[in-house]
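Reader question, answered in our methods column.
A reader sent in the components of a multi-part assembly and asked whether the whole thing could be modeled at once rather than chain by chain. We filled in our standard form and ran it. Here is what they sent:
COMPLEX SIZE: two components
ENTRIES:
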Amino acid sequence: MCDIIWCKKEVTGKPCDTINYLDPYCFWNWEGTINCAECGTVYYIHMIQGFMYQGPDERPGEKPDTMPLYADKPFDGYSNYRPGVEGRTRPYECKPRSVLLGVADMVKFSIRGRPVRGWRPQPPSAGLAGSFGFNWDIQKLTPEVWEEYQQKLAAGQVKDW
Amino acid sequence: MAKDPRVTRIEDLPGPKSKGEMDESKMPYEEYCKKLFDVGNEHTKPTALKGIRWLSCTMYIFTPHSVANLAELGAECIKIEMSRMGDAMRHTSPFNEAYLYPLHDTRPMTGTGLGFTNANPNKYFMTMDYHIPEMVEQFYGLVKKSDGLTELYRPGTLDKWKMSYRYLSEMNPRFIYVWGGGFGYGPKIFGGSYDILGQAHAGLASITGMHEYMGGHATKCTNWVIDWQSGNMITTAILAAIHHRRKTGLGTMIEFSQVQVPTRMLGHTTTMYGKFGIVRQRWGNWDTQLAAHGIILCGKSDFPDADNPQDKFCARYVMVSAFQDADFKELCAITGMNNLYDKYKAHKDRVEGEAQVEIYTALEKWAADKSRSQVAKILQDAGILAEPVRNDREVYESPHYRERGTVRWLDDPLFGDMVLHSGYSCGHMEKTPRRTNWHWRPVGADNKKIYHDMLGVPLTKIKEWYDKAWI
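And here is the structure of the entire assembly that came back:
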């Protein structure tokens, strides 16, 4: 599904040998110029329904219309340029937040500033066979969060919506 | 007053004197609805399914959701999970970030992921290892005290364990038994299923998204629509079975193949093939029956300075509907596409595929230097149906959903502050509204309630089973 531009431009006496991936969602039907993520050589391509109708043709001196999303160098132990490397690959914009952790996010308060049990470890149930009651007594079980909540209340940081 | 005191005249009675006067005295419809449904005070009203007790031997979204519907309507629903592990869905979370703790006493560092959300509200949670004969006895005890069960194991698994309908109906003839799973009996009886498999197998994914011609691909809906919809369909079957039982006194078995559901959601697709040999194609953000009636991309985001990429980059889409001749004429006039109106005056002409390509391309070209809200406002001011494509944050902020109680905050008794829609998105009921009491509870949180309070098992026995990890 994914076409590539294998850049073999001679740079400092060696071929660049970088594979620039043309992700189909962007390039399926596309005409314009794109840079090599490694050496910056600008190529013109014209793709029609995923087929490389014309190019890649070098266009020295032209400014690229876009950048590849990802590129790697297979002869270099597969070192790569991940999305969002400034000036080399396209920004990675499909994130649900500006900061994506990828690990459990320890939160103690909801977006409106009220306590939510989103951190670990939590105290055990103290009930038989793992049984829980129907009330999280935050003041008793986690006094430090209760205290922080009181401070938020006093500072007017707790909202209704 | 009438001469004859036995005669009652309407003009002598208090209140309106005519139908017209009565109509005038009625409160405006808006006020009437607000008073009738009394959003926010659902818990002051009774529940529709009070008295129904349902067992749930379910996992993931599809079958748990069928029981969640009952639980929101007031049934007492008991979810039986693997001891210490729980439903596999508890261990999923979007991009591995969102969890609530604790999962279980023995696993203080593990939480329940938000993948579990909405499929398990109001349920009671117990644990049981079905492989232990003593536990199967307890299971039978529950069946005798319950109205029905939903399970999702491979077809015949519970039959092998003597826990299927033909065994349970001998213990409780009023028992309603639901098997829900992938393919059901037939050539692929052992085939498991997930939502994505259902979307693919039944052809839904083949008609979702844009055609390759427009740079699209066969597409799975981001959310698990087939899981959620299959759950709804099972609940419909359960309610019908409960009604049938009121008439006959007998339970029934419901066998529900998940991969059937998307065929129901395909509309005219199959019938069209049968009559004309047409294999329906993807048409993504446009429409095969109506034009113009689609979603277009605008050039500028509504929130170019936002921190969140969903706002910064994605707030660029608007839905527009102007398929009637007068609306299409107006659309062409305000967007400067008069030549297209001259060309496609009749709907039968503009609904044709190549015409749509031309129309939507011209619309997006017109919108290329405008933001989403500018486009929506221009179209709305011209009397054309148009709405921005909202993201989650905008739905949360929307006064419409807030006023109707669709999106609201819940102080969950165990997990604290949570925003939710769940049952509140399922329409209003005057007398017996749906409600959410809690989002979920930890694994085995109600073991004592079920084993001791309901089944009469001594506390020492429960402790012994727990120590052996039978429960």
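What stands out: Chain A has two domains: 3-81, 107-154. The first strand of chain A starts at residue 3 and ends at 7.
Send us your own complexes using the same form.
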